[in-house]
Amino acid sequence: MCYLGTGDMKESEYFKKSQDFSLVLGGPLYQLLIRARLEDSALGHLKRRIVVITLFAWLPLFLLSLLDGKALGGVRIPFLYDFEVQARFLLALPLLIVAELMVHKRIRTIVQQFLDRGIIPEESLPRFGAIIDSAMRVRNSIAVEVALLLVVFVGGHFIWSAMSVMEKAAQETATWYAANSDAGMRLSPAGYWYGFVSRPAFQFIFIRWYFRLFVWARFLWQVSRLNLHLIPTHPDRAAGLGFLSVSVYAMSLFILALGVLLSGMVANRIFYTGAKLMDFKLEAIALIAIVMMVVLGPLLAFTPHLMRAKRAGLREYGKLASRYVEEFDQKWVRGGAAVDEQLIGSGDIQSLADLGNSFEIIRGIRPIPFSREAVIQLIVIILLPVLPLTLTMMPLEELITKLFGVIF
């Protein structure tokens, strides 16, 4: 139910703003992709975009390492056996591109729910519209994307390259992109493309996602400053804000991409340094904590509203319940009912039960607008790409034998 109420013109104005909300359709890169016919205003050409961007990052690395004799062998970590690189460019990168379409559709629906459910009262509509406009201006910021480019291609490139070189030097392992020499680690032709093109391009796309999450968190925080119209007896036990849990599903492909990056890093360590899967418990826990902070953390801005709605509901429905049970007691226990009125079939009992159910719903209002299932879903999505690595703890044949032993 929508409580926009000042006429069709005003209603359509703010509803259109919510329909136009998007974390994806904006920014210089978006405009560049449109001019290159890799994208349109509806995020079309998805397959073309995936193929072109993925091949731009991955194919030169394969061809250069193939020409250098390091695609399938010649070094301890050939290109095609570098699990971290394959996971980054062939799995995580396409997932980040596809995630744009899902986030575009699902987040827009979440924003519309603020109006559809009447959560934004009429007097707050102008401020709500201004918040949407502000979010879109930040999303379209040229300065922000230029700053991200500088971070990645200037500062970030040298930091991440130095970390990678130090890691390989510590392992004393020659790879497809770098080898030991008297002067230190020497990059191969594929290594130069990797260090100066592919990896920075991926990092830019990746960090740009965190900027979008910042825009979303900023939007939610500003909306939480409004005077919201919440119903404490709403069956979602979040006073009507339970729809915000959908943000976990909206971000699921982005979350999955993070899990893929973790699994690629862990796979390299297991197969090339002799590490064990359980050695990376802290990394997995840290990633889960970070994802919960950036995806679910912004929803905590609505906690004060939920607690106020719960306190007000308990107070108001408590008064109503006291009055009702007093009248019920006087009527059916103290003999106040009419002589010809029968208890059997009376709606008073059902009304008493309904009032009790409403009171229990209010008592069950969560201090957070997301459910335990949303948290579990988030954790499962992150760890799903790591699941195949459990086979490194036990050979597949042994695992199957044990499963058959349990069944039969």
From the structure provided, what is the oligomeric state, counting identical versus distinct chains? Answer: single chain
The total count of strands amounts to 2
The major pleated sheet works out as: 2 strands, antiparallel
Order of helices and strands: HHHHHHEEHHHHHHHH
- Give the neighbour order of strands across the main sheet: 1-2
* Helix-and-strand structural type: mainly alpha
The end-to-end span amounts to 56 Å
Low-confidence runs (pLDDT<50, min 5 residues)?
A: 1-9
Average pLDDT, rounded to a whole number, is 84
Shape estimate:
elongated
In short:
The protein has helices at residues 8-20, 28-35, 46-67, 83-116, 125-139, 142-171, 189-224, 246-250, 252-273, 281-296, 303-333, 347-363, 372-383, 396-407, and strands at 178-181, 184-187.
Lay out the secondary structure.
Blueprint lengths: L7 H13 L7 H8 L10 H22 L15 H34 L8 H15 L2 H30 L6 E4 L2 E4 L1 H36 L21 H5 L1 H22 L7 H16 L6 H31 L13 H17 L8 H12 L12 H12 L1
Antiparallel strand pairs: 1-2
Helix pairs in contact: 1-4, 3-4, 3-7, 4-7, 4-9, 5-7, 6-7, 9-10, 9-13, 10-13, 11-12
